Amino acid sequence: MKTCLSIAALVVCAGAGAYAAEFGHWNGGRTIPVHRLAPLGFDGEKVSPAAALPAPISQDKTCGQCHDVAAARGGSHFRTGLDTNDAPASVQVEPWFWADEALGLAIPLSLHGQPGAFAPRDLGLAAFEWTKMFGRSFPGGGIGSDPRAMEEVAGPRQRWFVTGPLEANCLACHQQGDTYDSSEWARQVLRENFTGAAVAASGLSAVEGMNERMHGAWAAAENPDDHLFNVPQKIVYDLTQFDAKQRCVFPVGKPQSDRCLACHAVTEKGMPSHAILGDVHLQHGMTCIDCHKNGMDHRIKTTSCRACHIEPKGAGPHPCHAGIPLVHFEKLSCTVCHAGVTAEGKRSQVRTARANRIGIYGRVQWATDCPYILEPVFMKGADGKIAPHRMAWPSYFAAVSTNGTVSPLRLDAVKGLKALAGVTNGLNKALVASALAELTASTPAADFAFVGHGRLWKPDGSNLVAVVHAAAGPVAWPVGHDVRPARMARGANPVKCADCHTGDSDFFQAKIVPTGPLSDADVEPVSQADLMEVSDTYHALLGTTFAMRPMLKIFLWTVFGLVCLFVMAAAAVALNKVAGWISDSTDDFIWGLAKWIVDMGFVVCLLYLAASGVIGWMVGGMSGIWLVFHMCAGGGFAACVLLLLFIRLKERTLKILPGLVWLFWTAFAAGVVFTAVMPMMTVYGEHGQAMLLWSHRCVSLCFLALSCLVCWLCCRKR
Questions:
Q1: Which residue in 475, 411, 414, 405 sits closest to 446, CA to CA?
Q2: What is the distance between the alpha carbons of residues 599 and 466, in angstroms, rounded to a whole number?
Q3: Could you tell me what percent of the chain has a pLDDT over 90?
Q4: Cα–Cα distances in Å, from 673 out to 79, 221, 316, 668, 696?
Q5: Which of 694, 682, 599 is nearest to 647 (CA)?
Q6: How many CB atoms lie within 10 A of CB 577?
Q7: Cβ(325)–Cβ(501) under 8 Å?
Q8: What is the pLDDT of residue 374?
Q9: pLDDT in tens, 51-73
Q10: Is residue 132 scored above 60 in pLDDT?
Q11: 387 pLDDT tier (thresholds 50, 70, 90)
């Protein structure tokens, strides 16, 4: 009977577990469940925290009692690079860098084929090496515990038998409060205490010993008297956190923003902590997961800026963008003006958690300057819009094949070169030339070169020759944060348009010097205009015109005001005497010639404005040098209209029909000038700008038709 009851209980528990795994844990309740449960080990058995050698906690098994951990394994943070089932990146992400601070070497790596980065297999980088090298900045799982990665051919760089898997660390994201220690996680991963790293970081236990010092056959390392570190990993649980049933509380919930920043933080090099303002969304109480959402599959989907701030149903404040022409929203991403971590958006070297190991604390300094990353570098993104990017140039020693293919050498092999022994403060060309000579002497049949500063450096006797090569090109990824408020955006007060539109604007005319480890490298800078795929000559010309923009505004408003006066003059008979006094003596040759010049100038300007406006409208907008000519022709047009009103008003208003036509012609001329100058004022936002654009088109077409009618009437009179 007792046996039957036990079997029935097991069936019920198994059914409940299957239900939870299949249908999820939420039953409609509005409270967060307390995760008080007995943790399980890697063998699926209960962990006995008071045992002499207690087993480490397996989060895969423990969390899997209720949650569908199998679905989570395919998440965005758990990519393996081993198949096409990996979660695709919703945005272009930062690559990993295999770097050596002393020599300044940095090789960009990616598990999912990012442009400009190498796959681990291209460098013979084993899955175990990847896990130990980068486990500090990702929450385990993926390549750190995938059976296919752990079944790689055993060799000197495969130590899974000693370490066990680095399982997905649920607590790295979901533990609440400030008790989770990401620095402890990084330390334990580098000590190869993979199975104990998560529980040590959570604060449930201390982890003693270092698997790193154990041989693959579990033999002790060289110092047998080291009983503190030269021993296998040992878990020492904090028994005060366990109850009589060997249960403990896992304080989990939705990921907090500081958990995300442990791996995704970026700061400008040298910036003091009090100068960092942070992301405006976080300042106003939002969290990272408000925009970067996922379900149980952990595949993150990023909400765009437009979804919240532009779309009608967006929950965020809708910007006005007063005075900004619509072309900016067609060709620029929101982040051009609203994102970046550097002071005042100036280009500077930045350090990231993933690449430069910032945010890991201890007696030893973890943060590094290598790789050397610049921000912001403006370039055209995958969506065709210009966006700010972070950019780094790879640096490494490489073998060059006969067909020109460049293959990076492993950094651990390079550090064994005699020419580089003792180098702790970067490289110079003489050191690189000596190292390349040593590599050639050891392998005479191969050619070697150095990649750095955007060039391929080949040996030429005792010197180096810099060659442009695709393998030396930079790797870049777009900037998404920190988002700045409108008052701190690019183009905000007091400089406004001059932030980008001057003859020597850094935005368009900047020359970016490729970074790298060589102290005496002398290479040609990269033109930011080329990266944005725009003409720096055109934008230098356009920027120069902005110096005259205030005068143009004053002139156009003056013309508009005077034209309005002539509208009233045409409507008021009393002002005809003034017009008659102005337009007498039409038989005089010089006066007639002046009127003919004004007429011809008006016709030429009108024809160019009509042609460029209609063509630009039909092909999707006006830009480039034609826009500059359109603006210049607009000024000439306004001047000619004003002169025509002075010298032609009397003769055009002597009869009723020509007078009415002239009256409408004058009114539409005022409308053309008004709709041209009004978008230059910081009054209307995006929707107002669109309305003014269409108004300008309609009024201009009406004015063109009336001008043709006036010409016809004049020809008919003659």
A1: 405
A2: 61
A3: 15
A4: 58, 85, 36, 9, 9
A5: 599
A6: 10
A7: no
A8: 93
A9: 888 999 999 999 888 888 888 88
A10: yes
A11: very high
- Residue 510 tokens read as 């900047």
- What is the DSSP secondary-structure string of 404-450? --EEEPPHHHHTT-GGGTT--S-B-HHHHHHHHHHHHHH-TTSEEEE
* Dihedral over Cα of 69, 75, 80, 84: its sign: positive
Give the integer Cα–Cα distance in Å for 650 and 375: 63
The pair of structure tokens assigned to 172 is: 């790295």
Q: What's the rounded Cα separation, in Å, for the pair 191 and 214?
A: 10
Give the residue carrying structure tokens 């765009």: 304
pLDDT in tens, 663-710: 777 888 888 888 888 888 878 888 888 888 888 888 888 888 877 777
Check if the beta carbon of residue 650 is closer than 8 Å to that of residue 576.
yes
* Maximum C-alpha span of the chain: 129
Decide if 449 contacts 398 (C-beta within 8 A). Answer: yes
pTM of the model as a whole: 0.82
Helix (H) or strand (E) holding 350, with range, is strand 348-352
Rounded to whole angstroms, the Cα distance separating 434 from 416 reads 13
Question: Would you say residue 244 has pLDDT above 60?
Answer: yes
Beta bridge partners of 379: 387
Distance of alpha carbon 336 from alpha carbon 343, whole angstroms: 14
Q: How many residues does the chain have?
A: 718
H helices, E strands: number in the chain? 26, 20
Closest CA to 39 of 51, 28, 49: 49
Residue with tokens 């002071």: 343
E strands, 547-601, where? none
- Where are the domains positioned within the chain? 6-84+126-249, 257-392+475-543, 396-472, 548-717
Residues 453-499 have pLDDT tens digits of 999 999 887 788 888 888 899 999 999 888 888 888 888 877 788 88
CA distance 575 to 588: 24
